[in-house]
């Protein structure tokens, strides 16, 4: 177990360095696009840029000046985003909409849930859903708490002489990586490949061909894992699906589902852990409240999810028919981009939505999406956040930032927003 732990932590470090050097999920090379197109991915620290709020107030459904044949619409209003994401019959998410565009070929379909429409999506989600119920996830609860405590022990050791400790490297990255290993049931002897492909998988926008190549290699790896699970099913997610569904689910489908779980469950939770810690560190009142009371943990987690909304834009939707959204006519074939970060700050939800306020009572946030494509792993993410945040502030009650806030480096143009490094001193 010690060897496994050290290897995965080492991978998390490599992941951090690779992101710093390559800017995974970074679109900054796409300078030919107008600023209005890139604007939904920009932030000022933790906050979406003011232009996003201005567009939302003026035109919650606005046309983007993108140099392609189809119309592209940006949807920023809460009600309007829910309307788009909730109309699976009117909008398609299928990968075939991308074939022939951005270097994508039919053979590069990653499978899984994100780029599938019903009835394929419906059948695949039914395979996964039982594995993400609270009853099934309950078996992971003790291990999640063990992983959190292990990371806190490592942080304490690293900072015992007063040296700064990086929360991103030491806490935020390792926790979800280890949890996903447990969830999928990846064999110990295969962890090295798993780690390497995880890092490559998230360098999505370093170029279309490189991105699809990483996806293809990742799927090839998971096909091998699935083959082993067929021969000797374990107690992880893949093994459980094999035991319960047998040959009714193909190896290709299982590999795509595993790749989707890895894609959706690592980077997003890691970003939430790091950015949530920053929110708490910037306000002693909130830090103390979470330190002192178990009864506030759920409300803090939900408000952090809304306030940060680290997945800034949902997968593109392609209109199947002519329809109206927010008083705007969308034509069949148009592309629709939904700003989740913009929708979750919509003033229609209540006053001062640009502020972090865990006492507020608002409708459900859209941090996990909405409709049939709502994140299937939402409850697992919540379990990790509910375990990690209070444990962090209670182990290190005197923890303080070890850098000037203005010097912190955030991702500049990123679908999954995050911070590159968050140095702290554990004893003030």
UniProtKB/TrEMBL annotation:
MF terms in GO: heme binding; iron ion binding; monooxygenase activity; oxidoreductase activity, acting on paired donors, with incorporation or reduction of molecular oxygen
Which key words are in the record?
Answer: Heme, Iron, Metal-binding, Monooxygenase, Oxidoreductase
The protein's superkingdom reads Bacteria
Q: Which InterPro entries match?
A: Cyt_P450, Cyt_P450_B, Cyt_P450_CS, Cyt_P450_sf
Check the record and name the PROSITE patterns matching this protein: CYTOCHROME_P450 (PS00086)
Family per similarity comment: Belongs to the cytochrome P450 family.
- Identification of the protein by name: Cytochrome P450
């Amino acid at each position: 177990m010690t060897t496994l732990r050290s290897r995965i932590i080492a991978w998390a470090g490599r992941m951090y360095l690779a992101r710093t050097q390559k800017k995974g999920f970074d679109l900054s090379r796409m300078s030919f696009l107008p600023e209005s197109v890139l604007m939904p991915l920009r932030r000022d620290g933790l906050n979406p840029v003011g232009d996003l709020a201005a567009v939302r107030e003026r035109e919650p459904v606005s046309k983007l000046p993108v140099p392609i044949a189809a119309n592209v619409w940006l949807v920023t209003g809460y009600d309007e985003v829910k309307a788009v994401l909730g109309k699976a019959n009117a909008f398609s998410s299928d990968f075939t909409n991308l074939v022939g565009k951005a270097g994508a070929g039919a053979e590069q379909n990653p499978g899984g849930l994100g780029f599938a429409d019903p009835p394929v999506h419906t059948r695949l989600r039914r395979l996964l859903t039982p594995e993400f119920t609270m009853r099934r996830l309950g078996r992971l609860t003790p291990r999640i708490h063990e992983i959190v405590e292990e990371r806190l022990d490592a942080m304490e050791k690293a900072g015992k002489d007063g040296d700064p400790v990086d929360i991103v490297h030491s806490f935020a990255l390792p926790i979800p990586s280890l949890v996903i290993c447990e969830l999928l049931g990846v064999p110990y002897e295969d962890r090295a490949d798993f780690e390497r492909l995880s890092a490559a998988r998230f360098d999505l926008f370093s170029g279309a061909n490189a991105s699809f190549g990483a996806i293809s290699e990742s799927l090839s790896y998971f096909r091998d894992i699935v083959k082993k699970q067929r021969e000797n099913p374990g107690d992880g997610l893949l093994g459980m699906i094999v035991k319960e569904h047998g040959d009714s689910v193909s190896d290709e489908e299982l590999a795509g589902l595993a790749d989707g779980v890895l894609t959706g469950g690592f980077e997003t939770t890691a970003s939430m852990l790091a950015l949530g810690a920053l929110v708490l560190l910037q306000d002693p009142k909130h830090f103390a409240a979470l330190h002192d009371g178990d009864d506030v943990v759920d409300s803090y987690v939900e408000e952090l999810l809304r306030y940060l909304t680290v997945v800034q834009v949902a997968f593109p939707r392609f209109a199947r028919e002519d329809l109206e959204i927010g008083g705007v006519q969308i034509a069949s074939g148009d592309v629709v981009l939904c700003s989740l970060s913009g929708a979750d700050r919509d003033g229609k939800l209540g006053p001062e939505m640009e502020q972090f306020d865990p006492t507020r009572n608002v409708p459900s946030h859209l941090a996990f999406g909405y409709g049939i494509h709502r994140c299937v792993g939402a409850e697992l993410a919540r379990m990790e956040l509910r375990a990690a945040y209070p444990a962090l502030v209670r182990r290190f009650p005197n923890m303080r930032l070890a850098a000037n806030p203005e010097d912190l480096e955030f991702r500049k143009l990123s679908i999954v927003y995050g911070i590159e490094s968050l140095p702290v001193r554990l004893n003030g």
